[in-house]
Structures are given as structure tokens and as C-alpha cells.
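Histone deacetylase
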Amino acid sequence: MKLPIAFHPIYKHPLPEGHRFPMIKYELLPQQLLHEGTAEKADFFEPDVANLDAVLSVHKRSYVDELLELSLDPRAARKIGFPLSAELVERELRIANGTIIGTQKAFDNRIAFNIAGGTHHAYSDRGEAFCLLNDQAIAAQLLLNQKFAKKILIVDLDVHQGNGTAEIFQENSSVFTFSMHGKSNYPFKKEVSNLDIALLDGTNDETYLKILAESLPKLIEQQKPDFIFYLAGVDILATDKLGKLSCTIEGCKKRDEMVFEQCLKHQIPIQVSMGGGYSPEIKTIVEAHANTFRAAKDFFS
């Protein structure tokens, strides 16, 4: 089975000192997938930078120009959380293109992955919380513009609400935004998705999976999407430093399996971006993310 995976080596597009953990997962996760045989070398591709026209289909030109020229207002740059640099902007453009290419590959392979991505806090006119450009929003709009899809469903299961994605598509009826997240987690001022499910602190596997099982199949039946984008953050784990839910690694994998099962049942291509994961031990983060790939291989083989 072909498992297309966009890969962005940190050593080529370095992150500033002090920001490598947990971003080191972008290097360790491919190594783990290759080591255990879940993926092969031929599955990985390293994208070039995204076409600016695609980026500008969802992000305002003034904001993109400020990123490219490194002229963001210092207050706006601080909200992003990374020191702004040409290397960082290039990395974000490559991540966005990894998701764009992944959507194309998903039509042939039924599923495609981005080792990075899930930058759902990037708004049309600003970035925040380590997100500069919204990779799945850019790719979704491009699918619509090129008429490869008429209706898109974004399934955001990161512990944090996809506020930027909600803002970008608030006037676009061709994209349905679904965010299931921690009620008291960042962002503290939520945007309005088409469907928001806010979970209480301490939500465990049983409750989480029950809510998802009741919501996702119904949503797919109602919306009948041509394509699904899935943000598979593993910050729903009880061990996560920035999450407040109480899910286990096994529960997180069952969540992924639910999403893949629905895509397979309805024959809907899916692109998966990895999103957040901030457990204290890097092995926990890598294991939880690797489970998403393992589940995909089990379902789509």
C-alpha cells in the first residue's frame, strides 16, 4: 500500500533554539515509521514552497507580504510565538505545499499525510500559537477553486479549537468546519465553527469516543463531503502539558480508526495533518502519532 507522507527535515529548515522540543517529533516520527515498516522510503516526499496564489486564496496579501518581508508588527510576531525569520516562513510555505500535494495524492491513494501541518490557529490576516499559514485551509480552498471538490469537511480533533480555520471559512458554505476540543483550553476566546463540541476537563476515552461516534457519521451523512481534511492532534492525551482531557494512547488510536472507518465506508479521500502533541516524554508523542499511521495502514491496505 502506498502511504504518501509529506516530510520537512528540521535540519534543512531549522527552528530557533528553545523550540526544538516537541518539534523534534518531525524528525523522530519518520524514523519510527521506517524502522517498524509502517512506511517505506518511497512513501515520503519533501515539498517545495507553496505557490503564493494558493496561499493568497485564504490569507490576505498584506499579511503574507509582511511575512515575506519580515516586517510584521512586533506585537503580531509575538502572538505567533516563534522568532520571525526567512527560514521559518519558508518552512511554513513548504508545510502548506505538503498538504496541497497530499490532497492530490489522496485522490489516487485514498489517504495522504503531512508529518507537520495542522496550523489551524492561523487566521486570514494573522498568525498565532506557532501557526503562520493555515495549511489545510489553503489546500481546501485550492480544491474548490480547481473544482476537484464541491463540499469539504474539516474534522479538527486537536485539543485546541480550530479558531483560524473557523474564521477563514465563516462565509464559505462549501466548507464545513467541525472542531471537537477542550472547553477551557486555548484559545480562550473561541471562534464559531459550523459545529463546535466543547469537552469538559478530564473527558476520558469512553465519553470522548461516544460523542465522536454519535457526531461524525451523522455529519458525513448530512454534509456528503467530496473530501475530508483531518487534524489528528494527540494533545487529547491525559499526559499532555497543554491539554486538559484524560484520553489514553489506545483511545486516541480508536479515535483515528473511527475517522478512517467513515472515510472508507463512504469512499471519501482524506488528507491528515498531525497537529499538536505536548506530552513531557517525546516517546509518548511519537507513539501516539505513529498510531495514526498504523491505523491508516490497517484500514486502507
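thats it. The longest helix spans residues 86-109. The chain is about 45% helix and 10% strand. bye
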